[in-house]
Design brief:
By secondary structure, the protein is mainly alpha-helical. It has 8 helices and 2 strands, in the order αααβαβαααα. It has helices spanning 2-7, 37-50, 71-78, 98-112, 137-156, 172-206, 223-234, 241-247; strands spanning 84-88, 128-132.
Length: 255
């Protein structure tokens, strides 16, 4: 029991880091840089969850609120850091022997595992290299800000953000709908304005009958929409053939 307590932080904490008298739900910890405020807060939360005396009074807490100045500060200080892997790559080649591997595991377990040793810098030697395998909270915030800027630029240019390929933004269904909306609301109106201007520019030379326009039926991205229109018009028995042709954008026969 004494050895178990010694391994816990409460076995080596300073007297100023222990609760004074009764157990309170709220503390005000005042101290200068390096006084142990962050460590005390982390160990206090750890003790409340695990029911460790003297911080919890024997009671185990199920829900806790971690509060920081920013979300990034709260995550970095109180919750997580980037995960990674130790790589053994000596200049002369080779691999760890079984004894070296076992000793390294013991050193990592005794020196760096557990809440009491969180944040301790890793000392590497003999060809060992630490490689991060995930993004840090600051990296994730940077990525979120970059994706947000990309969405704002896309909206300003009339491009649905789902078409940008940002992870988590698009499924197959809303991607198809966004693709059709992009053609209908952005591409085709722009092409139509350009075609009108070219037509007006060519008419003095080739006559008023010259007209440039796009062929919406040739756009692959609108194929599903076009097929649905043809199906509805084809099933409308109350329309004549000429009315059906006008409904799908075609002129009278023979033109």
């Amino acid at each position: 029991m004494a050895l178990a307590i010694e391994r816990e932080w409460l076995g080596s904490a300073r007297l100023a880091q222990y609760p004074l008298g009764a157990i309170f739900d709220s503390w005000l910890v005042m101290g200068g840089r390096g006084a142990g405020k962050t460590r005390l807060g982390a160990e206090w939360v750890n003790a409340l969850v695990r029911g460790l005396p003297p911080f919890s009074g024997g009671r185990r807490y199920g829900r806790l609120a971690l509060i920081g100045e920013t979300l990034t500060d709260a995550r970095e200080v109180m919750v997580e850091g980037p995960s990674g892997v130790l790589v053994y790559a000596p200049k002369e080649g080779g691999s760890l022997s079984d004894d070296q591997f076992d000793r390294l595991n013991v050193e990592l377990e005794q020196g760096y595992a557990g809440a009491a040793r969180a944040g301790r810098p890793l000392l590497l030697e003999g060809g060992l290299d630490w490689r991060a395998m995930s993004l840090s909270p600051r990296d994730m915030d940077f990525m979120a800000a970059k994706n947000g800027a990309a969405r704002d630029i896309a909206l300003a240019l009339g491009v649905p953000p789902m078409l940008l390929g940002i992870p988590g933004d698009n499924t197959y269904a809303n991607y198809q709908e966004a693709n059709r909306a992009f053609y209908r609301l952005t591409v085709l109106p722009l092409v139509g304005r350009v075609a009108k201007e070219f037509s007006a520019w060519l008419q003095p030379v080739f006559g008023a009958g010259v007209r440039l326009w796009y062929d919406a039926d040739g756009i692959e991205g609108l194929a599903a929409e076009r097929e649905a229109l043809w199906s509805r018009v084809g099933a409308a028995d109350f329309l004549s053939d000429e009315e059906k042709r006008r409904a799908v954008g075609y002129g009278p026969r023979g033109e």
